[in-house]
Amino acid sequence: MEHSVVFAGFGGQGLLFAGQVLARAAIKDGLEAFWIPSYGPEMRGGTASCTVIVGDGPIGSPVVDRFDAAVTMNLPSLRKFAPRVAPGGLLAMNTSLLGKETGGRHDVDELHLLCTELAARGGDDKLVTIVALGALVGRLGWVTPGAVRAALREMAGRKRPEIVEADLGAFDAGLEAGAVPAAT
């Protein structure tokens, strides 16, 4: 098993952090992980993305042509990465910024997330990428929620312990929003 995801949006949205949390959670679950950041010189406000690859064995290459999932937080990212999601993959979209935009793909699972509203419900409306991370975990199950929570406690707690509870709340709101509905 090997899976890849790209987190993409504006610099300053926490994309690189969310990717690091996913990679750390994968390691906690006994998986291999690769985290590759990419951002322009602007950092805050410019475009930023990171690729995370997780697998149950050695990862052969950090190069990804087709992603199993893409988390797109703004329109430029949606336009850039929606075509690169493999058929049957997941395209998660921050509809708080994208509105009714779609990826225009009928061969992928399009997950529309009101990230800002869900983050506010979790405790801090700035934690939009943690919501998206939760939705990704809830929908795809590549890593366990417990491993993500442990990674959040470690990583957020090290620099900003005062926001750990809000991070956990945002993650749980996303986890619920991304959960696959039970079959009836």
What does this structure look like?
This protein has one domain: Pyruvate-ferredoxin Oxidoreductase, domain 3. It contains 7 helices and 6 strands, in the order E-H-E-E-E-H-E-H-E-H-H-H-H. It has helices spanning 15-28, 75-81, 95-98, 115-122, 128-140, 145-159, 164-178, and strands spanning 2-10, 32-39, 47-55, 67-72, 85-94, 109-113. It has a 6-stranded mixed sheet with strand order 2-3-1-4-5-6, sandwiched between helices. Helix 6 (145-159) packs antiparallel against helix 7. The radius of gyration is 15 Å and the shape is globular.
Instruction: Count helical runs.
Output: 7
Spatial strand order of the main sheet:
2-3-1-4-5-6
Helix content: 40-55%
How far the N terminus sits from the C terminus, by CA atoms, comes to 29 Å
Per-chain topology:
Layout: E1 2-10, H1 15-28, E2 32-39, E3 47-55, E4 67-72, H2 75-81, E5 85-94, H3 95-98, E6 109-113, H4 115-122, H5 128-140, H6 145-159, H7 164-178
Helix pairs in contact: 1-6, 4-5, 4-7, 5-7, 6-7
